[in-house]
Fold these 2 entries.
Entry 1:
Amino acid sequence: MQSLQSLIIYLALGTLIGYFLSKINKHLGPIVLFALSIFGLYALWGMPTGVTESLFGFEGVLKFTALSKYLSIVTLIVFACYGFFNISWISKAKHPAAFNALSILTLLGTIGVFFSAHLIALYIFWEIAVLASLFIVPMGKEESKKATIWYVVISSIGSYLFLYGVFMLHEHYGTFDIFEIAQNIQNAPAGFRWTVVLLLLAAGIAKSGIFPLHVWLRNVHGNAPDTFSAVLSGQLVKMGSYLIALVLSVLPIVTMFAEFYNGVNILSYILIWLGNISILVGTLMAIKQNDMKMLIAYSTVANGGYILIGLATLDQVGYAGGLFHIINHALAATMIFLSFAAVIYRTGTTKIDEMGGLIHRMPVTFVTYLVGIISLAGIPPTSGFISKWMIFQSLVSKGMFVTQMFVFVGSIGSFLYVFRPLAGVFLGQLKNKDKNVKEAPIVMQIPMIILTALTVLWGVFPQQVLGWITDVQKEFGMKPFEFEGTVLKTSMGDWDTWTVFVMFAVGFIIAAVIYVLMPKGKKIPLEDQYTSGEFIHNYDLYHYATKFYAFLEREYEGHPSFEDWYLSIVNALRSLGKFIDYLARRTASAYLFWTAVVLALIMLVRW
Amino acid sequence: MITLLVAVPLAFAFATVAFPKLNKYVFPLVTLFNLTLLIGYVHPTQVVEVGKWPALYGIVLLLDNVNYPFLILVNLILLAVSISATFQDKLGTLLIVLTAALNGLLLTGDFFNAFVFLEIISAVAYILSAQNKNSYAAFKYLIFGAIAGTLYLIGAVSMYVYAGTLNMGYAGFIASHEYLEIAGILMLIALLIELKVLPLGLWAPDVYSNGSTLTPVILGSAITLTMFYFYARLFFNIIGPVNTNLVYVLAIVSLIFAQLAAMKQRTLGRTLSYLAIAGASTVMAAFSAGAMGDEKLISAALLYLFNDIIAVFVLFIIFGYLNGKGFKDNTVAGIAFSLVSISLIGFPLTAGFWAKINLLTALFEAGDYILPAVLLAAAVIQAGYLIKWNVDLWYVDNDSETEEIYLPFGAQLVVLLFALALVVIGFMPDLIKAYTDKIASHIFDFKTYFDTILKGGM
């Protein structure tokens, strides 16, 4: 039975060991990471929740709640697949030793966040994770340098607002332990409650990419090293969601804020609306993207919105749905980014319209991506369907039809934008330059296959995940989601995943039987095509991928850009700085002037 | 014995006038001697009455728990400078004189003696700032510094006129509070000019960015540190505690403006100068917030000062040598630069992190909600431009234009040790905190100071 502290120490040692081993042979580093992740999974899988421990002599800093367990397991699964994938991918990394060491350090920071009950310890681990990922991001493409600045500034805004809130709480209650604070905070005056909760949530909002702090995701996730985008999108934003879930469930939000709409309190309502806008912004911006990684980065914004909406309803079905969506999006985003990493590994580009027809050369990668987007779009029998269904259910049962509309439009939109890379990269015409592209190495295929299997497995047999989730709900005093075997029960009806799967399977078998019995079509090469009797010399032009959704993008072409708005704030601040600099370059008599001014001012005040 | 701290450097300085070539060796030896003396032989509390004149009539040198850590740190910094910086031989004499003057200012208990040392420090500072053909900036600094000196002199003289003695302790004992305040204002302005609080610190960007490995390093670390000591001694111990609300406001405004100005800069030198100004302003704001006797706040401010001084040292030495070139061939410099940047921003686990946390804790306990907000907002801006410079310097495309520049071994050693020290203190903050707590607990204790100086009585 491992202790939490020993796990943290192993990860810290692992960082150093990983660094030095990577100097010897760069493939050793990811092996260390993979080994640590598997060890972590093994240790935490059976660990009982509700354990409080001390860290390096400080009492009561670590606490292993059900929420910690759930999110740690999600994180470790993502990191295990990432580590295994990297064993092969690391040959393309620019600074492999630093990359490996910092990856393990990121894992350390994240796990530490999940273990902390002491808010300063949480802040320390949070910043460690940010710091480690901060130095990995510029190892990507050329534009990743600018992206790093976005990352650190917006992350700092969130973390420092959080820190200010933590100190305000400490000032009032004399403790940094969030569970102790929760017991006393109900009696605080309204202004204080609002301020503190919003400040604490700010870090979670900044990290999970919710509007209005969503602008960094596109640049950072899109330009980071390819496999690390999987960690950024599949796991680090979940750290933000963890903070939101923690604040919403530990602090008695329901009693702290007045009820606003049909059982939903006003703070939750505001958060739900932020989620709505995130879904809208994420979906619409994703449809426009030509770079496949930036596209999925925007999808992370939208899915962060889903998670926030689910969590904020604080209701039996909705909260469980939000938590389930965390694991679904983690798996799906990891699958998608790993498949992209495999494609980029072989083709060397991230632009959708420069690829095409890769299904013929990389079938396993294709299947991974396909199952990933099916899960994201929320189609049974993948696990993505269950979480989306639960969120829909809870919104409808509360009568929140406007939000329901946003969520539904987001869902349809998600299918639109995930189809773009599918059609542009995998289907369609194989380009001439990609004729000799091979499938990804077997080491890369294994984690992709495992993730695919997990998505389908948990879509059909969600009991394991639901067990974790209901433990979380029970621990926080919420009514747990009801399920029995494969039957999920809500107030509006039941859903049997096994029945649905059987239906799909039967349909699949019937189709397979027909395919086998019926006469086969003739297989012709891709180039054997005609158009209006003309012979095509350059088959690359056959591929429809450029400006894929032009008809839709035209509708919202002149939209305001939040990125530009933030940049204009930066410019305004810069010009203020320019003014100060101007003052500094003046003549000596100007200095005399300033001295006289300050002297007069101080004398005036004293008199 | 403590007079040796001033006398030995002074003597050797005169000796090296005749043998300028030996400066390279005499300077480190002198600072090493000082350090050995301080760590091994001389301990607080000691009083020396120069010329055996009683304290009231003569000059008194005092070593107590407040200036002992400052002395060690200043001499350590000067030793580090002697090893790492590159300077012309003839400057060596000046630097040894500077050593004497800094030690003197830290030890003295007499207003006019302090003025003498202040002027010596300023004179050396002007000459240093004229390095690398930076004469106009040095001239502007001279004007500003002359005003500072004059104001201080008027303040000291008015003290003498009222109290009949130039001894700091006795003047503080006998003078009325209002009188002390007015004289104090004059001295305050003088110190604010040296401490680079905007708008009185407008000279700093031009002077610090001259690209020499000597000027900003010494001005930004050793001299700033000494000035902060002198400020604390005057306004917490002797004249104080004084309500310094206006200085608080001025320092906060200075902090914001300095960070904004740093954000705008395109050259590393000016960015770092504004960074130094911002750091000094933060410490000044914290000092003024805790001026009424808040020991915890002063202790936290001192830890922040320590972090800032070391950081400024490392950053400016690296800038002085590399002058904006990248870290591709200078990994050690790059690592030191990045570690120090991380400490300045306040990422765990570095000295800067503990400084920030302690400062925030103390500020909130004191009921101050404004400075923490400003501090954190400024930290966001600082994180932005520091990371930008780090990324730009690490990932620069080396066009292989000119010769490759390397840091000399001494500089590499020093910057790496200093950067690692910040990380080590991040893991064990009590190493420095013990000292800052001691300073903070003694600095408000006027009675002990007075009794020590006038141990014989009047």
Note: Residues 316-347 of chain A form the longest helix (32 residues).
Entry 2:
Amino acid sequence: MSLLKIVDLHKKYGNLEVLKGVSFTLEQGETKVVIGPSGTGKSTLLRCINRLSPPGAGEVWLDGVEVTDSKANINELRAEMGFVFQSFNLFSHLTALRNVRIGPIKVKGMNKDAATKLAMEELERVGLTDKVNAYPAQLSGGQQQRVSIARALAMSPKLILFDEPTSALDPELIGEVLTVMINLAKEGMTMLVVTHEMGFARAVADEIIFMENGVIVEQGTPSQMFSNPQHKRTGEFLHKINELYGESD
Amino acid sequence: MLLAGVRINIELLFALLVLGLLVGTLVALLQVYGGRFFGTLASGYAWIFRSIPAIVLLFLFYFGPSEFGVNIPPFFAAALALGLRSSAYQSQIFRGALQAIPHGQMMAARSMGMSRTRAIFLIVIPQAFRISIAGWSNEFSSVVKDTTLAYVVGLNEVLRKVRIITDRHYDLAMLAYLTVALIFLVLTYAGNWSLGRLEKRLQIPGLQMMRGGTREV
Amino acid sequence: MAFDWAWLPLLAHGLILTIEITVTCIAFGFVLGVILALMRVYGGKWLSIPASIYIQIFRGTPLLVQLLMVYYGLPSWGISLSAFVSGVLALGLNTAAYQAEYLRGAIQAVKSGQLLAARSMGMTMPQAARYVVLPQAFRIVIPSWSNELILMLKYSSIVFSVTLLDLMGVGKRIASHNFRYFEVYVVVALFYLALVFIITQLLRLLEKKVHIPGLGEHAES
């Protein structure tokens, strides 16, 4: 049974149909990268998966439980999915440490000491032990995003959704975040990542999904997609992206 | 009968707003352009008249002079007390507006040979006036309701009328107060609406100020 | 024209009552204000509209009318409240409406991403409001709230009109006994000025103390 199953997802904003029937699966331990031109519904897709944006039609299944069921306990399900935002969205009034441990304490009911220990571990995992008592405003963009990843990890999620995690970062800060993400993938975390970073995709993606105009145009392994794309558009897009963003490790 | 009382409230409203406008503008100009001495004096004036409760001011202006044998009629005492108080609040609004006008405006005016005074009156004040309207309508709402305070110095305004009614018909008290409340709701809305229209009519594209959220400053 | 030192202890008593009334009505107003603000922002139609109506009514009608209505009007409907309760109630209901509006503005100033992040990790709406939105909103609202506190301190003086012996009430009594209106009211005014000054400084200290770097109306992107 797949960890994540998306079945024929549709989503409209007013008269504009942003998702026109998207289906795919994600197995445990896999890392899949979603690419495509802006405005093709990639972010919307992620937000539909954890129902931050309710889908118009279609189903989302997490480990055998239907997320899109109106009777589902959405808070429990969300606690099992990590979400990393493009604009980080760290809680501005809490230090890094408190940001990471508030989820385990308030949502999972962990006791404070255990949660603090866990939070310290996760912050160490992303390389920020020396910034645990800093407030978000005192951290660089790259540091904030790493805290936000630690925050997602602290919930021990079954998978993590990444919504263009590096798009809001200055170029020199992108590397530190990608490094953390690559390590996560190698450690076996299940990840669904929307990004333009082709270097990342080539390094750890099990599959690349190319979306345009609300539908999946093509999906395949990185080597397939880059060297032998089936669709003309895929090749064009990959070529353009490679030009703009180049390789990054 | 209540409406006759309301008429007095409205007359008081106009009197005090005009006084507040004139003195307030003067104080604001002194604060921004008056140099250290007059600026501090103006700021001090504004602080004092904003920090003393309206009631205390009313009593001071009405009863105070009587100790020296001077009897000021309630209307004038109230207009003076509330007017000067309003001038303090209005001065803060105008000051904010004056300071919001980019310094470049003044520089351009002076560069073409205008004296400082002319630049202020021809360039800065007209713009400041327009951006003040939003904040001024906050003051307006506040002051409309404050006219009822003149009741305590015996002015024959609407609350005194209510007293007269309730003295005779005790059981109508609640109803009378509700009616007065309703009248003021209408007054406040009418006033705000008119000021909103005025603001739109006078609006210059590109010239705006952040609307203040606080009731008074 | 002379000032009598004997007035001071009397005025001091009045001062204490003034402070009591102000603190009580502000506290009451705060609790009610938070409830109203939450109703306005997070309640559906059925909660936010009544809250809005309440706020419009209490902000749109004069405070003195509200006070007299509670003290003189309610008895005609069979409800008789003591002067102190009437005063605190009327002032409290009034300030609640203003505080609700300031708080609403503050809640809406908290960036929406904060709420998204909280919900994404599985927090319920009440949890998100309590642990993420409100802590930030309370800090953002401090300037407006301080303003309201000072305002209520001054407006508390109207309770003299329902027989309460607050600072103003005491002053009026002294003045009507010895007809030295001018001196008495000047002293009363000075008391209020001192009070306003001290409380303003205290509030500034408070604001500094709970300040969090990066949190405020001038928050970046």
Note: The first helix of chain C runs from residue 7 to 42.
